[in-house]
Amino acid sequence: MIVPVDVELVAQDANKASKRGDLVIVIDVVRATTSIITALSNGAKSVIPVQTVKEAMQLRRMHLDYLLTGEREGVKPKGFDLDNSPLSLTKENVEGKNLIMSTTNGTKALVQSRGSKWVLVGAFVNAEAVAKKSNEIASKNNVGISFVLAGQKNHFALEDFICAGGVIDKLPKGAVEFSDKAIGALLAYNGAKHNLQENIRKSKHAQELLKIGFGKDIEFACQIDLYSIVPCYKNGVTQV
Ligand code: MLT
């Protein structure tokens, strides 16, 4: 079967992908999905994405041993254990732990994708692995692949679009059929890839992170295929 590949540009459109019955790949490359993949690679048991800080706090009251992670305006919310930097989610900090995570856009995109049967977590750091796994599942089940980009407060985010193109680039040629948005993402990635970090830094959100001292996170997020795991979001929990 030829697998159709499409892209939803903002989290709010996740339901369009669910209605098509597609497998979803959620991308918030700077930084939520990069951070989830990193935490699980460093031995976290699970990451539970929630939409609001209040929900995160409520859930933690029921599970006092869970860690609270995430950000608002890029920094750790009051009462949280860790921020949303992938560099904070070290083995030392997260191994063997369950994490409750709330971020401005990325965790919302995951929760809003809950209507889809398969929801995978993607970023540059697992581009090859997520491309391979999504294609295997989609071909086997005769469904399409949709990228759900977290975006930035309901708006298009350049970095997520380029990252989707990076994953699309690794899908097997000939076995997939791209929508115009998927072709656009691929063209954007091909135009950006030779100077990936510098091009990702041009995005509005990366500029905001640079201003508050998180430049190293952008460098980290631009590492292609650092990990081979593909976290899946199911029943409210993200696990490998
Ligand atoms: C988000 O979810 O909006 C981002 O991951 C924000 C961030 O850079 O931490």
Count of individual helical segments: 11
Shape: globular
Query: What series of H and E elements makes up the topology?
Result: EHEHEHEHEHEHEHEHHHHEE
Rg, please?
Answer: 16 Å
The unique ligands bound to this protein are:
D-malate
Which strands sit side by side, in order, in the main sheet? 6-2-7-1-8
Query: How is the CATH topology named?
Result: putative 2-phosphosulfolactate phosphatase
Helix content: 40-55%
Number of domains: 1
| Fourth CATH level, the homologous superfamily | ComB-like
Plain-language structure description:
With 240 residues, the protein is an alpha/beta fold. The protein has one domain (3-34, 104-239): Alpha-Beta Complex (putative 2-phosphosulfolactate phosphatase), CATH 3.90.1560. The chain has helices at 14-20, 32-41, 53-62, 91-94, 106-112, 127-141, 158-168, 180-192, 196-200, 204-211, 215-221, and strands at 3-8, 23-27, 46-49, 67-70, 98-102, 119-122, 145-149, 176-178, 232-234, 237-239. The strands form 3 sheets. The chain has a 5-stranded parallel beta sheet, sandwiched between helices. The protein has a 3-stranded parallel beta sheet with strand order 3-5-4, with helices on both faces. Strands 9-10 form a two-stranded antiparallel sheet. A hairpin with a 2-residue loop joins β9 (232-234) and β10. The longest helix is centred in the middle third of the chain and has 15 residues, at 127-141. The protein is globular, with a radius of gyration of 16 Å. The two termini are 27 Å apart. The model has no long low-confidence stretch (mean pLDDT 97). Residues 28, 30-32, 71, 74, 84, 103-106, 150, 209 line the site of D-malate.
